[in-house]
Amino acid sequence: MAQTTTARRAARNHNRITIRARAIQVPPPVPTTASPHKVASLPRCNKVPATTAPEIASTAESGAKFAWDRTLADRLPLKILLAEDDLLNAKIAKSMFGKFGYRAITHVVNGVEALEQITRADSEGWMFDVLFCDMFMPLMDGYTTATKVREYFATRPPSSSSTVPPRIIALTANASVEDRGKCLALGMCAYMTKPLSIQELYDALLQTGQARGLGYQGR
After folding, report:
1. What is the second-level CATH architecture of the domain 56-212?
2. Domain boundaries, the chain
3. Exposed, middle or buried, 180 (CB in 10 Å: 0-12/13-18/19+)?
4. SS3 78
5. Amino acid 56: pLDDT
6. How far apart are CA 103 and CA 54, in angstroms?
7. Interatomic CA distance for residues 136 and 83, integer angstroms
8. What's the CA gap between 96 and 66, in Å, rounded?
9. Quick one: DSSP state of residue 42?
10. pLDDT tens digits along 128-179
């Protein structure tokens, strides 16, 4: 009888120990890679500084970066003539030139004044390096202006001056193939559509410097 009682007590104690052991079992650890607080796998949106170097600038509209030298005028001292009758467009263009260091821009509002500036410079023994010429101006449009400039240098007495004609770059809102071909056929060196791109303007100045043999030609 005593043995039976002892056996029952031992069985109850064993059951209690088993239950307690199950109750305090620690669940397996959750892998750290599955933690919901980890964000390393998510794409990061890093802030890009507005300028990473003095010669780099960016547009606010698209964020596209352009490479240009703010001191271009120091190594390419170009003499620039701008023929543009729209004063707002002229202001924008001169502001762009200013970003490259060009401050002394000669501005006229029609082809008649542009031709007067060119002939006056020639009589003084110097010449503009480049004429940025709007195609649609009062009194004398850009097409006629380019023709008159070409005729002037073609008929000028060789002994009167040794200056060479300025490069003429057309400025127009029309981007058709016909307009481009017409400008090039009149002896213009390049064709730029409005609104002007600051990078294209910079490249046009570089090409002008190369053609005129002025200064260092690197970007």
Report:
1. 3-Layer(aba) Sandwich (3.40)
2. 56-212
3. middle
4. coil
5. 37
6. 19
7. 10
8. 13
9. S
10. 999 999 999 999 999 999 999 999 999 998 877 888 999 999 999 887 888 8
Helix, strand, coil % in the chain, rounded to nearest 5: 40, 15, 45
d(CA 51, CA 61): 15
For the chain, how far is it from start to end, CA to CA, in angstroms?
Answer: 108
Look at the block and give the residue holding tokens 């503009």. 128
Distance of CA 154 to the CA centre of its chain: 37
Q: Distance (Å, rounded) from C-alpha 79 to C-alpha 119? A: 15
Closest CA to 80 of 109, 105, 115, 114: 105
Phi and psi torsions of 132, nearest 5°? -90, 115
Rounded Cα distance between 97 and 139, Å, is: 26
pTM over 0.85: no
